[in-house]
Design brief:
Blueprint (H helix, E strand, L loop, with lengths): L25 H12 L8 E5 L5 H8 L4 E6 L2 H13 L5 E4 L2 H7 L4 E6 L7 H13 L3 E12 L10 E7 L2 E7 L3
Parallel strand pairs: 1-2, 1-4, 2-3, 4-5
Antiparallel strand pairs: 5-7, 6-7
Protein name: Methyltransferase
GO molecular function: methyltransferase activity; nucleic acid binding
InterPro entries: DNA_methylase_N6_adenine_CS, RNA_MeTrfase_RsmD, SAM-dependent_MTases_sf
Length: about 180
């Protein structure tokens, strides 16, 4: 895994083999950030990265100038890796060790963009619960964007705030627009 653009472009993220992660491929990540680059000013964003894993998405945002990024993961070893890597890269990443569903029920944070990359085998109801918690608790700022990465075998088009999706190999990014 590498950071594909920004001031840390080319830096490799080498996670220990034992971590329970499936990082977003460089190709899919590059395509996603090309889409976002045309829609957003990275320096102005508050971003929450749910199921952050090794922080591939968090570090990509920070490399592109986003100052306020919160990475949430429940796995102790992922948190350790995120902490070590953000220190090595001299980044001020806000790292929270928490079950994502608990975090969504309790957090006071609001974001312009929330990215969620849950396990691909998550039951459909739990994908729906992510969107539902974010919408009900108004965790996105006005015209905020939720992006959920999932496998091509999951279909999230029926969710009320769904707006579009992009497919890259086995990965799909579904976009959800929340209006205040």
């Amino acid at each position: 895994m590498r950071i594909v653009s920004g001031r840390l472009k080319g830096r490799r993220l080498i996670a220990p083999k034992k971590l329970p992660v499936r990082p977003t491929t460089d190709m899919a990540k590059e395509a996603l950030f090309n889409i976002l680059n045309n829609r957003l000013r990275f320096q102005d964003l508050d971003v929450i990265d749910l199921f952050a894993g090794i922080g591939s998405i968090s570090f990509e945002f920070m490399s592109r100038g986003t100052q306020r990024v919160t990475a949430v993961d429940a796995n102790f070893d992922c948190i350790k890796f995120l902490t070590k890597t953000s220190e090595e890269l001299d980044l001020d990443l806000n790292i929270i060790k928490s079950d994502v569903f608990d975090f969504l029920q309790k957090t006071p944070l609001k974001a312009d963009l929330i990215f969620a990359d849950p396990p691909y085998d998550l039951p459909l109801e739990e994908f729906e619960q992510i969107e539902n918690s974010i919408r009900e608790r108004s965790l996105l700022k006005e015209d905020g964007l939720l992006i959920i990465e999932h496998s091509k075998h999951s279909n999230l088009e029926h969710i009320e705030t769904y707006s579009e999706q992009r497919k890259y190999g086995n990965s799909v990014f579904s976009f959800f627009k929340m209006h205040s």
